[in-house]
Prior knowledge:
- The protein is α+β, with helices and mostly antiparallel strands.
- The chain has two domains: 2-155; 167-540, Porin (Beta Barrel), CATH 2.40.160.
- Helices cover 22% and strands 40% of the residues.
- The protein has a 16-stranded antiparallel β-barrel. Strands 2-3 form a two-stranded antiparallel ribbon.
- A hairpin with an 8-residue loop joins strand 2 (183-184) and strand 3.
- Residues 1-41 and 91-127 have low confidence and may be disordered.
Amino acid sequence: MKSLRVYAVHGAALAVAAFVSFNTYGRAQETPPGAAASAPGETATAVRDLQDQVRQLRTLVDEMRTENTQSRAEMQQLRHDLQATRALLERPGEPGGATYGTVAGESAPPDQGAGAPASGAATTPSAQSAAPLEDRIQKLEESTSLLGSKIDEHYQTKVETASKYRARLHGIVLMNAFRNVGISNNLDLPDVAQPAALGAPQTSFGATLRQSEIGLEIFGPNVAGARTSANIQLDFAGGFPSVGNGVNFGIARVQAASLRFDWGHTSVIAGQDALFLSPLSPTSFASLATPAFAAAGNLWSWTPQIRVEHRFEFSDQQSVTLQAGILDNLNWQPPFSSYDRSAQAGEQSGQPAYGVRAAWSRPVFGHPLSLGAAGYSGRQNWAWDRYVDAWAGMLDWQIPIAPRLTLSGEFYRGRGIGTFGAGIERPVVFGGPPFSGTTPIRGLDAAGGWSQLTLQITPKLDLNGVFAEDNAYASDVRGFATDQNNYSTIIGRNRGMLGNLVYRPRSDLLFSAEFRRLRSFPVYSNSSMTNQVNLAMGILF
Length: 541
């Protein structure tokens, strides 16, 4: 009986622990009230935050599944022990059923009269303990079955791999419908406004799913005390096949693919990743394939890089993060061939580009307050030993002004950083024919940035307003370069603004409505303007 009680107590404790874990898991799966505004400055960060939450929950599901298997085994053992105990306590042949209190083969106590029921005195201590114990075991079995069904329901998201290490699939299926008034360089993802050709209509309408994303995360072994992982993320904005209605069949392209080694406070990341020098972007589900205002004040790039991060934790939840790394020294030049790769101007310098960033953060009103500063340096060789030393300084901020109001943004000043979209995606200007060895070149100075104000109307509804501008210094152009010698119209200033509503009825479902305006100012001609209304609907997985 003592061992039986031990099993019963152990089983009940296991059930309570399982229910507590399940309830904790359920609460973690809900969208926190402040999640919609926790990273208002970056659309991709908002999506990855949701994906990180799902990944953490799935880790918990794996652990619960193991505990559930152990619970079932112990419950079966407990039921077996109960049946063995009842067999010892039963007296076969009694007309009223089993008689508890005597072992088979023994007689009743001598003071018990013949007319007294054999079970009357002895049933109380044994039957009253065994029957409730059976009820408790039945409830434990039902609870364990319920927990198992819930775990099995969530476990179906696990991706099977050829190795013993886990992998997780994540992404977003996103549909955008849009209407444009005015001409731009890209119908569904406008970056620069352009003048309309003579006789061309200035109003257009379309829809696309090419901004949908799919990613895979792999969890590897522990190496030298570090947790290892890898991820790859694709979208379908890599161009269009040359077939009928080819605009519907976007070509898959790699956005990011990286390896991570994570210790307690230090991480090493190698691969193609977002630009750590400029970590924020305006919130917009109209622009995922390229971040909003990519050529109008928002520095961005998915660049091959190796970087090291170290986090210092202080009191009051304050932390300082230091980052340093080397990057592939690219210059926004298109490939010369669809199959063979040639070195770009930065790569022809024979050295990588370099970047450092420092950031301080602490929570305020339940949202992160962060301030960051970064620097960039890289050398470019435009053939015939025409060198340009590119550089940039960046600032970024997230400032909760009130519990539901947050200001975020970035600012930069630099030269030759067209690879990140600055200078309206132009790193240098040519003072003559570009392929002549006697043509002088000049690194294009640029300054710009963006700022966003986010109002969390409800825990599920956000209102965002953004203003952005990129200013390529016209003094570097006038009297030195012309449009004819620089492949296309040289833009001196590119300005944008947007307002959108983002509604998330569930953590994995979103709707968005956005109005965006772009106005571009060429150096040698009049400005052009385009407006876009964009409706988006997406499901995250």
